[in-house]
Design brief:
- The protein is an alpha/beta fold and 243 residues long.
- It folds into two domains: 1-80 and 157-165 and 184-243, P-loop containing nucleotide triphosphate hydrolases (Rossmann fold); 88-155, no CATH class.
- Helices cover 36% and strands 27% of the residues.
- The strands form two sheets. The chain has a six-stranded mixed beta sheet, with helices on both faces. Strands 2-1-4-5 form a four-stranded antiparallel beta sheet.
- Helix 4 (111-124) runs antiparallel to helix 5.
- The longest helix has 14 residues, at 111-124.
Length: 243
């Protein structure tokens, strides 16, 4: 595996009894690429992302993050990941300040690193106006930005983002999309989204799964070339729009 291949999934399967949530999925994502991970609801996207992060163990198959085997070297691999799960849990009684400081300490950052990285995420995630408010009082959009800040605090090489723009208003979308673009210049970003316009403006590449199986892996322009992103998504997922 190339040293620049930051995410590698080989033949991953996840079974729950007789139900196959993920079936023989393989792909690689290099450094400096923003890759969309698409599929209809229930296709296995979130399950696959949890397997990549080490949160779930696959039934079979192998995952490496930055060269670390996530079965044998999960802690080392996890140090290189920033993960924003869909509807990521937050301690609602904390403020963004206390939550980010807690996460920075948990990630092992020293005092200088905490100051530097905290200043970065407050600026990039636009949290200054709510920095001292309890999280339970924040809007869905601000809570999502706190989750993004937690994923970024330790300056990870790999970002795995499940619906990162969920709940953001149009102004907030502009800032987070620009942040993802900027991060993709040096990092690996794998993001799940249902917003196809977001794929078009953010992503170099698309991985699409349906019913737990890989059905497309190629450039965004290739997916867009014939029927547009929406038409290609419908075709590859077997959906027949009503005329």
């Amino acid at each position: 595996m190339s040293t620049d291949m930051m995410i590698s999934a080989t033949g991953i399967n996840k079974h729950y009894g007789k139900f196959a949530a993920v079936s023989d999925v393989s792909f690689e994502v290099p450094r400096r690429q923003v890759c969309a991970f698409l599929g209809p609801n229930g296709a296995g996207k979130s399950t696959t992302m949890k397997i990549l992060t080490g949160y779930l163990a696959p039934t079979s198959g192998r995952v490496t993050i930055a060269g670390f085997d996530m079965e044998r070297e999960r802690l080392k691999g996890s140090e290189r990941i920033g993960y924003l799960p869909e509807n990521g849990p937050l301690y609602s009684e904390m403020t963004p300040e206390s939550a980010i400081n807690y996460m920075a300490r948990a990630r092992g950052l020293n005092a200088n690193q905490r100051r530097e990285r905290t200043a970065f995420v407050v600026d990039k995630c636009d949290l200054a106006e709510v920095w001292h408010k309890p999280i339970y009082k924040l809007s869905r959009g601000f809570r999502q930005r706190v989750g993004m800040a937690q994923a970024l605090i330790h300056d990870p090489d790999v970002l795995i983002l499940d619906e990162p723009t969920s709940g953001l208003d149009p102004n907030q979308l502009v800032g987070i999309r620009q942040l993802i673009r900027d991060l993709g210049q040096n990092k690996t970003v794998l993001l799940s989204t249902h917003i196809l316009h977001e794929v078009e403006v953010l992503c170099d590449r698309v991985i699409l799964i349906n019913q737990g199986r890989l059905v497309f892996d190629g450039s965004t322009s290739e997916l867009n070339a014939t029927q547009g992103l929406e038409g290609s998504f419908h075709r590859l997922t077997g959906f027949q729009p009503v005329a």
